[in-house]
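Rotation project, supervised by the postdoc (A.L.). Task for the rotation student: set up a whole-complex structure prediction and record inputs and outputs verbatim in this book. Inputs entered:
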Amino acid sequence: MSARLVHMEWLAVIHAVVHVLVVLAMPPLLLGVIAKTKAVFAGHVGPPVLQPYYDVVKLLQKGSVFSTTTTWMFLAGPVVSLATAVSAGMLMPLGSHAAPISFEGDLILFAYLLALGRFFTASAALDTGSAFEGMGAAREVTFACLAEPAVFFALLVLAKLSDSLSLTGMFREPLFAKWDAAGASLVLVTVSLFIVLLAENSRIPFDDPNTHLELTMIHEVMVLDHSGPALGMILYGAAVKLFVLSAFVLRVALPLDTGNAWLDWLLFLPGMLVVAVVIGIVESTMARLRLVNVPKVLVAACLLAAFGLVLVLK
Amino acid sequence: MTIGLVGGLVGISLALSQRDLKRALAYSSIENVGLVALGLGIGVWGVTSGHATMAALGFAGGLLHVWNHALMKGLMFFAAGSVLHGTGTKDIERLGGVMKQMPRTGAAMILGAVAISGLPPLNGFVSEWLMYMGLMRGGLSHEGGTRAVLLLSVGAVALIGGLALACFVRIVGIVLLGEARSDDARHAHESSVWLTGPMAVLAVLCVSVALLPRFALSCTRGVIEQVFGISPGEFAGILNSAESPVATLGALNAGAWLAIGLVAAALAALRRGTVESRDATWGCGYAAPTPRMQYTGSSFAEFLVARVLPKSLRARTKATSPAALFPAGGEIASQHPDPLSERVYEPFFAPWADRFARLHWLQRGKIQIYLLYFLVVLVLAFGWVSLREWLKS
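Outputs recorded:
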């Protein structure tokens, strides 16, 4: 009996280690897959799938230029946003095993860690004194106001279905059976979360991450002045955030659970690539929204999730 | 609870567009008192519906938020006072770049802003977490329509959180960061230890409440027992149970500090040995940027205030845009009226003020006449009392 328990504990440790490694290593791959998908749609070859890794490594080795206007807040932006994105990744269960850190109520910590990252990214943007970056910061915090309730409603639907207030608890029992009973509200939640995923990571139709110029309106414009290792951290941190939120969408949309934890890993990893391809397809087939319409789409995401919540309460 | 939510939303929405630093902080107090009311409302709801967990979480969150708000808002007002002392202005649009001259005040203000936005790893997060937990626990276990109300309020609290974040990013970003917007801000000087010392104490307290939430909560235990009749044992039991592990939250706050420290150390290590230079902020090719080209407090809040908030909470703006081929100077003016005082207090009190003004001839300013009034009132009172006694007998 005790030998079996020890074995279980060791297994949990091994899964936690794999979890940490996946959260740290996989995110840039998603960016690469999105870029490749868009290239295929546009009919050209595109950069290699591993290009984001090369970019991050190159940036981390480079020197940097700091604006004379800036203070330490300018560097706190990349540091805190990367730290919070990775910490949020520690709360999100990936396969069928428990996340490395989980407790009742961690879903609030999850949402607020991402908010902390946003606070410092936006402050760092304002630190440069540039009009463009101020504009980006203002938009980022505005859209986040509307995305936040949508995330909470979606979390509540899952909490209601699983009777648990921790992310690990929500996905402990496979959602498969619940798709049967509460399929409608889970569809609403998936759509709402996908919209939030695109908005929070500044993808098309909310923002265009490709135009590395002032025309890009939200995230890229906030990091216009960062360079060298700081920019590398921002790129990497943004990828981790994309990974964590994609994992959330995937875990809701892919309710399967094979019963074997290792097989679940094998299911999860290609699943993430599929999410990246879907994001790539959305980006290839849609144009960017007019800025004034962005709040409407986000309110719609909130309402979808709220309807989903009302449906499960029925 | 409704009062709390409405107060929270209205308070923070109005704080968003204020030009006066201290006035913005005052509006944010309305928001925070709203959150306190929300917490107590959750608690009362829990007591009346016999849901002990919800009651304990709500009361704990509300009362802890009273403490937290005292610490955070004290810190923010001290910092704002120090900025006023160092620059001579509290007009947000005239400040900017103060951080370079006032690093200690600036750091204190940033810490206070993060705390008051309810973000981890600081104390504001602990009390907001308790309230969220109260709402969610209550909402998941109640029946029928009540749980929908509770769970939908979670969204409203999330919205308050998002707006508070926008409000305090604006305060930090426009006041402390960027370039100075006026000579006052350019010639700022750091305040003495007597001003920065108390800020340091409050900042340390903010961090300690976040790291040791159980200790802070034990201070509220007496109130909760006396006023709301929840025994200390039960209270502690609920807050330390696996369903709402407050101590874990403290540990994770410490973990978040550690994670941030590790990444910061990594960045420092990466920067070592690389070539670094300093230059002006990239102006996209424009060679003569001025501080006037920066985003201002009004423009930062403009998108949110004008596009997202309801009309009654918006600032009133009058703008004359430059037009024609050789435009004359444009003009923009904005006002930030308080809808409550304009639409509720003033219409209610103005007619009364009129009526009372008609009694103005009574006020002569001579003490003899006032003594006569006393005498008349006394005689009338005695007369009334004796008349009643006489009628009874």
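Student's summary: Chain A touches chain B through 84 residues (CB under 8 Å).
Supervisor addendum: The longest strand of chain A covers residues 64-67.
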